[in-house]
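Step 1: inspect the first sequence and its tokens.
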Amino acid sequence: MTPWSYEPAADLDQNMVERLRRFPRQPDMLVYGLRSTAALALRGWLRVYHRLEISGVENLPQDGSFILVANHASHLDTLCLLAALPLRKLHRAFPAAAKDYFFVDVPRLAFAAVVVNALPFGRQSQIRQSLGLCRELLANPGNILILFPEGTRTVNGEIGEFRPGIGMLAGGANIPVVPCFLDGAFKAWPKGRFIPRPVKIRLRIGAPRTFADLAAGKEAAERICAELRRAVVELAG
């Protein structure tokens, strides 16, 4: 029988803020426990306060890595998409979050890193580096990347154009991309509002698609963005 052994995280000599800013993060049982507890509380709140209704869960791939893409209506979007995943996959789901917004002060950093396990994504700079982190995650089977290709929350409830990052990730790669649509999230918590309203939210999950047959490049990226945006709009009904 192989003896059981435990190896502590390699960054234990750093303070907690430095450890949370670092990505990929080292495993931490305390953070895992806090994240799981927060997930249960947030799922209960979404079910009761927002009467969250999820359809299409059967479209989520059971094996391998995949990408979830959705319209970006409010800060509730990430929580709703995470609520659609099994709890056992929680620590391997990585929502891409704006590095210049969520990783600048301790309260937002703690929420982004501990509660939602966010990947810091540079929207204005370091975009190639951020895409490289995404590729590394997806190369490890079983990871889930959550992206909002519009790049920012809508200000009027409309679905904006998708930025080319998702096309660059999906083009030429055998990675399933699952389109999703969030209905009601904008009315519940629009940009600029401090407290969410008790509005019903529906999450619709579409059929996954892959773009391995498209060579990576600008033209393919634009085509992928257009197709995924169309899929999200169709889910809006």
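Step 2: inspect the second sequence and its tokens, then contrast the two.
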Amino acid sequence: MGSVLAIVGFLALIVFVVIPIHELGHMLVARRFGFKVTEYFVGFGPKLWSRKRGEIEYGIKAIPAGGYVKIAGMNPYESVAPEDLPRAYGSKPIWQRALVILAGPLSHFLVGAILFFALFASYGDSTSQVVVVGDVAPTLGNHPSPASEAGLRVGDVVLRVGDLENPTRDTLGPYVTRFAHEHPREPLGYVIERDGRRITLSIVPQLVTEGGETRGRIGFTLGAEPLSVPEAAAASVRYVGATAWNAVTTIPKIFSQGVGRTFSVLFSDEPRRRDDPTSLVGVSQQVGDAGERGDWGTFLAYGAYVTIFIGIVNLIPLPPLDGGHLALLVWEKLTGRHADYRKLIPVSAAVIVFLSIFAIATVFLDITEPLPAI
């Protein structure tokens, strides 16, 4: 049930939150500068529902694969009434047109920041070096786990272990392993903070063989401590920047290596790798696995990453993407001439066909040969 809820929630987030907000960004800025906006639709294809308010028709279409805002004059084959020419797209200053185009992709960073904020305020930053108990295993091997027997609880912050002050995620494991090897079956003192109080627990580590290596374990996983509102806000800004940069560096690899790799796997017996390109279907499968475990922090993290990634993709300087429109505005600014959008229709069509084929290929692979589990 958790898996289905996570998948439905994730897809609903993208289709019914991220896309409408993207188009809303275009529309609000366009109206602010006096552009004539005539349509605001989510989806493509046959119209399912619409309502007109003022001069704008709002609606939903059958294919949930995007959306659009119709501004007078943006379609090069559309005639504009003489009285609307001052409000047409091409009549407005370049800087206003650029802000209208940018408003869509930039909305992704805002939504991503909100999702990251919810993650950090509710679940904390899992990359922090502070040792927080995330989950306590009831058993370790065939016996009750030392952590559960000692009364360790979810959310406890580990302040000291033995003579190791302020342990981190990197230092705790090796220290406990060394102690368990040197002092088998001897208790190790854990000083924890719980509800503002310091508590000392005596816990005997167990030696467990994992992947051919023997390690000291007491039976708890690492979690994170929820951040305060200012801390969560600062962390969300940092993560938006880091995620955007990761997307910027990943996209060239997708086109230089990932496309060829996708079609190689599609037409051969090669197994998929974890770093292969995936679609929203593949991401939703991973989100579903997290939902099945009750890991809603991962749900928020995936939602934020995908939202920002889509925003960066929209800035690729190719028509009909928003980045293509921005590139044309830069050309107009440098040359002082209006671009002939009709000449770019074949380029737009080629980009749409290529992206559609690539998307269909990755969806097919995600259904028939999902990425290996993390």
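Step 3: confirm your contrast with the notes below.
DSSP finds nine helices and twelve strands in the chain. Residues 85 and 152 are 71 Å apart (CA to CA).
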